[in-house]
Predict the structure.
Amino acid sequence: MIHPVLLCGGSGTRLWPLSRKSYPKQFARLIGDESLFQASARRLSGEGFAPPLIVTGDPFRFIVTEQLAQVEMGAKGILIEPEGRNTAPAVLAAALCLAAEDKGALMLIAPSDQVIPDDGAFRAAVQAAAPRALAGDLVTFGIAPTRAETGYGYLELAPGADVEAATPQPLARFVEKPDASKAQEMLTAGTYLWNAGIFLCTAKAAIAAYETHAPEMLEAVGASLASAARDLGFTRLGSESWERAENTSIDFAIMEKASNLAVMPFGAGWSDLGGWDAVWLESAPDADGNVCSERATAIGCEDTLLRSESPDLELVGIGLSDIIAIAMNDAVLVAHKSESQRVKEAVAALKARGASQAVQLPRDYRPWGWYESLALGGRFQVKRIVVNPGASLSLQSHHHRSEHWVVVEGTARVTVNDEVSLLAENQSIYIPLGAVHRMENPGKLPMVMIEVQTGSYLGEDDIVRYEDVYART
């Protein structure tokens, strides 16, 4: 049995404005109708695969469970990192967790933000690599390169290895992201593969590698797991010990130092969607090289990506060549395709200016559903709130604002102090300043409400929670 370990704690700044710190790229629908996380979970499922073990951050824990439920999947467990410290501590926490049940557990470590079009071919490659991993080796997956790519790390195969083999091959070394000339040299040499960041090994072999090459991390992460707490089905790793773990990748901490390495070549298609140019490439451009979303139109354009992410916004490109244009309600990106890797510079510049668009989507996802701001003034705000069937907001009050709720779809059960009301469509209720209140959706369909806030302060931190089914504080 193979135990998938899905890592989904990254921020994905290179795909801004669709991917932001509050809702990174693995949860977005960039290619097709599913998120990258959902597609990854599906890929690593079926015969021979156990339910996935997920490692993520606190802000994403309910997004993970909701997106898994949407594709009718469950998780073996969800580990919550106190803070993101790159992949090395995350992988070790998963290995220790699996080893507690079975030291010989075969773990497939994979990012949750990659595109692999041929799921069957990838599962077959994993099965082909399994005997080598069960024998104690650390097997990494290498992708057959199709271009001189500077955005990926590389794997150099040992002399005599076959880059097209259907079984794991000996690995000479890891190579950092190259410049353009070096990338071309490696492509021409034909003995290099892209580093996919996917690994197959037993929990025992992984822990042994940490014992040899990163003992301090093993101590810190082990203590963090020992002090972990259960919370609504999640496992919260202990924060004090976790802070002692070095912030580094598994490549640097373990793989570049280990001697029991092998590489499994894979040539059936792969992308880590590391920039909008990769999204364009993986989205099947038309005869003119254009990719347009439903609300985008290209006139006289070539090799261009046009995406409108708002149902109320039409994006039109005229006479464009090699341009990326991404339009959202609160932010627009326009860039030459060759400069797409510089998007993270734009995010850094917005952060320096204090612009909320750098990290926060206009739609804020919560465990009960989501909301978005429709209008904001000095002493008022209008929100659209969508509450999932059976979900409930916390019992709360506010010091600085009153609220007026109007149900526009579905049914709401509303508590105001000691009074409970059932509101149907086109009914409303007023929540006075300081009143203890709660909103619930008792129905079978999503409930949509318009909220009008008025007061001297409208920040989200003006919430006093008394009860919360999601254990937020």
